[in-house]
Amino acid sequence: MHACATNRDSTGCSSGGTGIRRVSGFFIKLLAVSFLALNVVSGQNSSWQDQVRAGRAALDEKSYDQAVAAFDRALSEVPASQVQVLSLVQFYKARSLEGRGDLLQAQQAVKMALYYQPDDQKLMEYLQQIEAASANRVASEGDITRSLASARGFIHPPGGASGPDLVDLHINFKSNQDRPEDQGIMQIAKLAEALKSPALAGVRVRLTGHTDLLGDPGYNQDLSLRRARTVVTSLVSDYGIDPKRLDFEGRGMREPLVNGTSPLANAANRRVAIQVLR
Fold first, then answer.
1. Which among 22, 80, 202, 214 would be 20 to 30 A from 62, CA to CA?
2. Residues 189, 133: contact at Cβ < 8 Å?
3. Residue 20 pLDDT
4. Buried (b) or exposed (e) across 171-189, using 16+ Cβ within 10 A?
5. What is each CA distance from 127 to 89, 95, 108, 182, in whole angstroms?
6. Complete DSSP assignment for 141-186
């Protein structure tokens, strides 16, 4: 998860906007055409194809829970060799999760789509948009728990700023300070609830602070580390999380998700990435 918790932004931790800019209609049509092409290539109808059709129908009807369930069933049946199909189904799952407001899980689904299709620029744009839209929102305990649970077992991609193994959580801080804003305080509380959940009992995590590309690199490095430390200190002192379960580091502005200093890029790059340790 990405969080403002680690950045020094000269303008503060303001978001690039409150709404998610949906993937262009052209991209969605392109994916639909791709799916039809895959149907032809794979020949006979299969159970996973039926599940994808059911999921797309539910998505069109805004029945997001049904859509997610159908896409999950499809993902459990698609052969591992069908990477294009797996990427496409993860994209549809992400749209469904976004629709019901589970933006962290939507991020994870897009990351999985990119895991299968790492050079897909449209998927990367979609991920950036969801990341930026998450900047001023408070993710729920359930969204955090399910996202961290899905991230377990993945290896971080070489040279990548983020991947399916990382959950980018936005924890907003006061401009140029390591004191969280109200949103940040609430987000830390939800993270603590998630770490106390049965699904994550005893799990160790590393919190890594990142900043946007504004300001001095040395200052941003120090600020990212101080903000990550603030999150860990609060989890331990305010919520009783065992410090042995927590590790932290700061990466400053060295690993941006998005190049540039536009409001969308700044919002996406300010983050605390949470990794489940083995």
1. 80
2. no
3. 45
4. bbbeeeebebbebbeebbb
5. 15, 11, 9, 25
6. HHHHHHHHHHHTTPPPPTT-S--TTEEEE---B-TTSSSB-HHHHH
Q: Most confidently modeled of 27-31, 103-107, 148-152, 270-274?
A: 103-107
- 260 by Cβ neighbours in 10 Å (0-12 / 13-18 / 19+) ranks as exposed
Global pTM value: 0.77
In the chain, domain spans: 4-17+136-276, 25-133
Closest CA to 118 of 78, 80, 158: 158
Q: Which residues of 7-42 are buried (b: 16+ CB within 10 A; e: fewer)?
A: bbbeebbbbbeeebeebeeebeeebeeebeeebeee
| Token pair belonging to 231 | 């999150």
d(CA 211, CA 99): 28
The fold of 4-17+136-276 is 60s Ribosomal Protein L30; Chain: A; (3.30.1330)
Fold entry, domain 25-133: 1.25.40
Cα 14 from Cα 248, distance rounded (Å): 24
What is the rounded (10 degree) CA torsion for 150, 151, 154, 159?
140
| H-helix segments, the chain | 25-42, 47-60, 64-75, 83-99, 103-116, 121-133, 141-151, 182-196, 217-237, 263-269
Q: Give the phi and the psi of residue 72 in degrees, each rounded to 5.
A: -65, -40
